[in-house]
Q: What sequence folds into this?
């Protein structure tokens, strides 16, 4: 049972502080002070650990009456699990006498008469009384201090957790710019532990050489009090050499008015900057694509006139005519220019001209068969297919062209020979590009690689690192256009001296593989001829109008010509008879489709064939034509013209009805 507590004593004079700090004095001189102390809990303990005297305040604190407390072994005032440590405490009391007064405090856990535990701070003074060793012990209830310490500890732990678990970078630099503290996000990003980074100069170890002067100026400006309002973006170098773009928000760290360092909060904006750069590049490429498409459209008109004039001249010249080789060379150059403009138009469009289910493995095999004849014997070309088939929706000819361009690019990057690997794999799991999964094509070489600056511009039309006359700068832009039209993505991994890997990701087709086209039967020996029909030709370019008029007459058609829509409508209103209108889509004043609408209103049976440098799908997508309209893509051959006109005449369905 707990011992009865002492009655509350009357207020009496307290033990003076001077007495406690005085040199050792005989027990008789201090006994009265101990007995009369109502404020300070004081115990007088002999060398064996027994209590010889106590103050009323000590009785109240420990819950004992004086008669029970005096003579009690001090072990009874200690929790049972600590009682065996008491002899060591006595020695510790002795050692404390050699320390400054401010350090002569011992923290223990007390045990009251009721069995309650109470934290105590002990101040112990060794006394000598008649040659006997005694200890004057002042007890103070440390509950409030402990509570405050626990509160501060929790506050400190919370602050530590907030810093360490923050989804941002946190760093503290001292006044010399050394890293003194960083959080877990910093450790995860850099791959460094506190032992690796603490005390290291930030600018020398964690910034790029090109950033160091600016970082140093920024740090000194902060310390001088010229704190910028806007955050600053700098490159952080990790332990494995990776670079991350960090937006730092910095402020001075102060303690009681004195500047002790710089606190910075960092946001990783690497991906955001990359996305922004991709958006800017996409917008730039879109603008360049539109410009390129417009140039190619106009150029195609000129090429059609050149090719037409060459055809007419060759038809009128003898085989032995001295001018014939020169005209044939002009025609060949024009044909090469046609292919150039085709590539420009492929780059400028965003949808495929024709779509069918294509097996990428077939395309890759075909490209390898052709490319091996072009890349040279010192370059090894191999394939690695990790699937039985890789089906996508697109134009097989354009996809073959894209792969061929990448292989030729790889060849040019390896003038001394090397290896080219084409890999194809199919992922059937749902993916961002398509619910049916993705098909991935990789073309990797061991060539010279590309610098970051070249990679930024590699898809720009006409940009090339090759010497003049050795490259058009349209290979990679064409690949970019084809992949974009197939709703795919393309990225590159490259570094100078480490080769290049292009990765194309295309949506996997949801449909089975298309049936191969049957071989064509008997080839026509000549284009289909007219059957007495009359054609109204509407074309604003004089050279194109001239060559088309000659082509139509060569096919046996009667021809009326008009330079624009206004002239064509005037011919119709004057009673001029025609069975079909062959018109350019783009005309001065009124467009070809607008003119066609008026002709169909006045003459529902009229058949209309449109001409454009753009393909049919592009014209339909841009709402210039309807899906059931018939169109010719410039420049076209005499055979294509004859076939398309015959198709329009032989169709049972009347257009526009």
A:
């Amino acid at each position: 049972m707990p011992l009865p507590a002492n009655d509350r004593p009357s207020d009496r004079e307290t033990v003076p502080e001077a007495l406690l700090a005085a040199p050792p004095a005989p027990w008789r001189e201090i006994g009265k002070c101990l007995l009369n102390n109502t404020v300070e809990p004081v115990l007088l303990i002999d060398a064996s650990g027994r209590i010889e005297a106590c103050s009323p305040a000590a009785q109240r604190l420990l819950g004992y009456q004086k008669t029970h407390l005096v003579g009690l072994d001090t072990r009874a005032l200690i929790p049972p699990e600590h009682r065996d440590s008491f002899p060591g405490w006595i020695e510790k009391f002795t050692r404390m006498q050699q320390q400054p007064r401010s350090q002569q405090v011992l923290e223990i856990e007390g045990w009251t008469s009721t069995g309650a535990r109470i934290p105590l701070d002990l101040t112990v003074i060794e006394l000598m009384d008649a040659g006997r060793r005694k200890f004057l012990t002042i007890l103070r209830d440390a509950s409030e201090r402990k509570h405050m310490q626990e509160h501060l500890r929790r506050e400190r732990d919370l602050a530590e957790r907030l810093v360490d678990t923050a989804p941002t970078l946190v760093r503290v630099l001292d006044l010399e710019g050394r890293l003194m503290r960083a959080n877990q996000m910093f450790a995860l990003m850099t791959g460094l532990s506190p032992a690796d980074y603490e005390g290291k100069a930030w600018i020398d170890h964690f910034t790029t050489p090109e950033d160091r002067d600016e970082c140093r100026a920024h740090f000194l400006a902060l310390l001088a009090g010229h704190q910028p309002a806007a955050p600053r973006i700098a490159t952080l170098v990790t332990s494995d050499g990776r670079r991350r773009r960090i937006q730092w928000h910095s402020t001075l760290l102060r303690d009681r008015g004195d500047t002790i360092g710089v606190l910075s909060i960092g946001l990783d904006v690497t991906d955001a900057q990359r996305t922004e750069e991709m958006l800017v590049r996409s917008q730039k490429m879109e603008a360049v694509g539109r410009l390129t498409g417009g140039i190619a459209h106009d150029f195609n008109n000129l090429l059609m006139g050149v090719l037409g004039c060459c055809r007419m001249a060759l038809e009128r010249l003898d085989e032995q005519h001295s001018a014939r080789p020169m005209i044939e060379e002009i025609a060949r150059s024009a044909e090469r220019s046609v292919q150039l403009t085709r590539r420009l138009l492929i780059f400028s469009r965003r949808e495929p001209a024709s779509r069918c289910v294509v097996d990428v493995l077939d395309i890759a095999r075909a490209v390898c068969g052709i490319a091996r004849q072009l890349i040279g014997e010192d370059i090894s070309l191999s394939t690695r297919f990790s699937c039985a088939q890789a089906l996508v929706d697109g134009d097989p000819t354009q996809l073959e062209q894209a792969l061929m361009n990448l292989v030729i690019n790889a060849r040019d990057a390896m003038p001394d020979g090397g290896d080219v690997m084409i890999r194809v794999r199919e992922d059937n799991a749902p993916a961002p590009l398509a619910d049916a999964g993705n098909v991935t094509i990789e073309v990797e070489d061991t060539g010279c690689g590309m610098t970051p600056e070249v990679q930024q511009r590699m898809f720009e039309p006409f940009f090339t690192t090759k010497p003049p006359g050795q490259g058009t700068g349209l290979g990679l832009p064409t690949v970019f256009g084809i992949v974009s039209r197939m709703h795919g993505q393309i990225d590159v991994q490259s570094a100078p001296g480490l080769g290049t890997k292009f990765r194309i990701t295309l949506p996997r087709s949801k449909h089975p593989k298309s049936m191969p086209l049957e071989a064509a039967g008997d080839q026509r020996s000549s284009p289909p001829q007219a059957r007495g029909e009359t054609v109204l030709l509407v074309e604003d370019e004089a050279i194109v109008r001239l060559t088309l008029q000659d082509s139509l007459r060569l096919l046996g058609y009667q021809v009326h010509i008009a330079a624009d829509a206004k002239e064509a409508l005037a011919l119709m209103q004057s009673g001029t008879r025609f069975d079909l209108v062959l018109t350019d889509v783009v005309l001065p004043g009124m467009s070809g489709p607008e003119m066609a609408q008026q002709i169909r209103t006045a003459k529902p049976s009229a058949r209309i064939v449109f001409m454009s440098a753009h393909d049919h799908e592009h014209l339909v997508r841009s709402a210039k034509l309807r899906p059931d309209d018939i169109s010719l893509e410039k420049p076209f051959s005499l055979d294509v013209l004859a076939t398309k006109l015959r198709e329009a005449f032989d169709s049972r369905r009347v257009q526009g009805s």
Summary: Residues 270-316 form the longest helix (47 residues). The chain has a mean pLDDT of 80.
